[in-house]
Amino acid sequence: QTDQYTLLRGRILDFHAAPQDETDTEAYRYIEDGAILLAGGKIKATGAFAEIVALAPDASITDHRPNLLMAGFIDTHVHFPQVQVIASWGAQLLDWLNSYTFPEETRFADPAHGAAMAGQFLDLLTCHGTTTAVAYCSVHPASVDAYFTEAAQRNMCMIGGKVMMDRNAPEALTDTPQSSYDDSKALIAKWHGKGRAHYAITPRFAITSTPEQLEIAGALVTEHPDCFVQTHLSENHDEIAYTAELYPDAPDYLGVYENYGLLTPKMLLGHSIHLTSREIDVLAETRAKPVFCPTSNLFLGSGLFDDAGLRGRGIQNAIATDIGAGTSYSMLQTLNEGYKVLQLQNQKLHPLRAFHWITRGNAEVLGLADRIGTLANGSDADIVVLNARATPAMALRMQRAQTLSEELFILQMLGDDRAIEETYVAGVPQKRDHAGARPEAV
Ligand code: GUN
Ligand code: ZN
């Protein structure tokens, strides 16, 4: 029935591989007058407008010209209970956790608070063009229920899990090895694979887990090989030193996780900044994935992620906001700061590679590139509409832009939620207005 078809018209960009620059035209697809045909939450066809409209002459057409249509952005490391922690002054990692983050996360013992924050969190993501995220929930199972319930209401492809933490945190925020195992197991049964939800087994980091808890986390990973795993690695020098005290027998920080069997290709390691050559070898061998969190790393003064060094070893990495140590929900602003982190190391981030990173690149790291991250036929219809003239400063700069790469770099450096004209999740527009109100709420 053609009346169930929707056609989005606009300029189209998606990626087949990571382009180094604009001469690498095999790596991407750009269509000046393009269209995407949607039905049932999926992309049915993407191509030239004239061809696509011929496939479904009765489709309802939304004309987004002259804006740019891309796959929805993917944020691979974010803390949903930290929506009221973002922009907390004056501390580096361990003090920041103790002073701001842990007290705030204790409030998620109240399921009503978790539910309210989950809704706001997901509205913020889609308002900023992010359609999939990998989140840490709080230690409380109810926070995971809140997160996946709200995600299901929006039909979003979301990944997340209950934080496991049984020491070095306030009592109200600690579980036990057994309770963390039982709760994680029950949440996996309840949510993993339900609709678009994926579970991530989530030991917070070595400092907040006893050896007994990391051992039981390893059992969960073995028992649920299709779940993601996420933790933090080598973000800050004091953190690394304390980890070495707590795990004196481990060869290094990554060796702690390695010893408990946590390293698989589905393991996401937030930060991964200060790595030894042995740790880099282990990453290459296990195909566990480092996650670059530029706004957070600069905000907490943590250090500079060595993107080129890791890529040079064939290690695929992801990029993420790390809200609430990160300072923006926008993956565009994340690329802006990422560009500068690489500049400080004499590394280059070309805008085409940048936009690959936050779409297909992150999707590949998650092993989900057949569903999200591109505009390929059969993909889920998660799409972002980008306006490079969204603000006066952008419009003025765009008057001098002549190439697609220039336009992308303007979006990367000057763009934020104002540049997100619309965000489609499984074919449904989420934005409508810049307050982030969803269609059913309007
Ligand atoms: N390491 C352990 N927990 C956290 C957290 O919540 N944020 C950051 N940035 N690092 C962490
Ligand atoms: Zn984090």
TrEMBL record:
<keyword id="KW-0862">Zinc</keyword>
<dbReference type="InterPro" id="IPR011059">
    <property type="entry name" value="Metal-dep_hydrolase_composite"/>
</dbReference>
<comment type="similarity">
    <text>Belongs to the metallo-dependent hydrolases superfamily. ATZ/TRZ family.</text>
</comment>
<feature type="domain" description="Amidohydrolase-related">
    <location>
        <begin position="69"/>
        <end position="427"/>
    </location>
</feature>
<keyword id="KW-0479">Metal-binding</keyword>
<dbReference type="InterPro" id="IPR014311">
    <property type="entry name" value="Guanine_deaminase"/>
</dbReference>
<dbReference type="GO" id="GO:0008270">
    <property type="term" value="F:zinc ion binding"/>
</dbReference>
<keyword id="KW-0378">Hydrolase</keyword>
<dbReference type="Pfam" id="PF01979">
    <property type="entry name" value="Amidohydro_1"/>
</dbReference>
<dbReference type="GO" id="GO:0006147">
    <property type="term" value="P:guanine catabolic process"/>
</dbReference>
<protein>
    <recommendedName>
        <fullName>Guanine deaminase</fullName>
        <ecNumber>3.5.4.3</ecNumber>
    </recommendedName>
</protein>
<dbReference type="InterPro" id="IPR032466">
    <property type="entry name" value="Metal_Hydrolase"/>
</dbReference>
<dbReference type="InterPro" id="IPR006680">
    <property type="entry name" value="Amidohydro-rel"/>
</dbReference>
<comment type="pathway">
    <text>Purine metabolism; guanine degradation; xanthine from guanine: step 1/1.</text>
</comment>
<dbReference type="InterPro" id="IPR051607">
    <property type="entry name" value="Metallo-dep_hydrolases"/>
</dbReference>
<comment type="function">
    <text>Catalyzes the hydrolytic deamination of guanine, producing xanthine and ammonia.</text>
</comment>
<dbReference type="GO" id="GO:0005829">
    <property type="term" value="C:cytosol"/>
</dbReference>
<dbReference type="GO" id="GO:0008892">
    <property type="term" value="F:guanine deaminase activity"/>
</dbReference>
